[in-house]
């Protein structure tokens, strides 16, 4: 329910239940509260600004893009329209926004794309939600469209496959790192391409700077992965990602779901997709895809197995009434949706932006699950934050809502250590930005190191990293101070 300042003022003055605004006292089922006195308030009164997470953009926001002027809601909600108008070439982006930005911005984007490890792909939905009056600092532009002036020099320890996924891959398209869980990568395309993609070594096709590994969207190729999973009785949990499960045809989504559910020891499945954040109308307009997902979820429930959808909202600015309606449809059809955010500088790295995101997700029945410390991926240094900053942010966020709707802030330990609570390091040096983690359940013989962006370090720390001859010594000191010099360090 939306409350104005006048409503809140009325509530503050109300003496009985019947004095509350918006016809609350007339709601069927609340008759038992008739004339009930309102208890004294112990907490300070809120303002409408404290409840903005309940507001969802419902106007024709896409019409601010000249090319979409006059496009009806019905047409914009069509996934065919979204696919047809997805921007995959610089020339097309320029056509859409040339009347909204100056030449300098366009030149900066062109040079930024030349340096980026990810190709350009952005949906009309996201394109329309960017604040083109101030694109330089817009949280959606930051995620999907690079500008040359925004880049920071890469930390010397960054890598394309920073999580070491390929080292834990028994067959193409499968990562087996944790004892009972595998990551299945049946394809390498997404509805949009995020600048910060942790899988930029494979996803989205070759760029000027990266020659990529490919995961083929081919059922015949998937048989190797299915056979491996069936041959490993310890595997109970399968994450289907990519690429993006949104891009699977309905029959292929069913094939994956039904095949995995038939394997006796598989108990849990998660379809991972950025889709609801960048093209939520697919859930509303692509009945075949949504029905396939719902049927796999239902089949899993019949078999006593859990099938859920994991998605990826990073900013409340990505969420509109279209999103709310899409999430409501999934919720009403019994589909559990959890969210995994990446902590990104300028997007969600303040208390206000993170709290707004968490509350908005919770309000539409999407469970905030993880906030990831930004992976150490080549070409993304301007987007990363320090571990110190993340720890402080987590402290501020915890307690703002129910515990089950409060995300865990985690570091996916570089080099294959898996997810660690961001504050669970065995040693952290704020000057050098080196944090040291153990991951005994993954490999008790190893240490995993994360490195803060150099530009976030104090002057003393920056100077240390300027001298390449000191790099190994900095790492040796951090390992020694962790108390685990007997373990093998893994760095990216």
TrEMBL record:
Top-rank taxon, per record: Bacteria
Keyword 4Fe-4S (UniProt): yes
GO MF annotations, alphabetized: 4 iron, 4 sulfur cluster binding; catalytic activity; metal ion binding
Record keyword Secreted present: no
Modified residues (N6-(pyridoxal phosphate)lysine): 419
Keywords: 4Fe-4S, Iron, Iron-sulfur, Metal-binding, Plasmid, Pyridoxal phosphate, S-adenosyl-L-methionine
Every Radical SAM core domain range: 174-401
Cofactors required: pyridoxal 5'-phosphate; [4Fe-4S] cluster
Family: Belongs to the radical SAM superfamily. KamA family.
PANTHER family hit by this protein: L-LYSINE 2,3-AMINOMUTASE AQ_1632-RELATED, LYSINE 2,3-AMINOMUTASE-RELATED
Protein name in UniProt: Radical SAM core domain-containing protein
Organism: Fulvitalea axinellae
Organism classification: Bacteria, Pseudomonadati, Bacteroidota, Cytophagia, Cytophagales
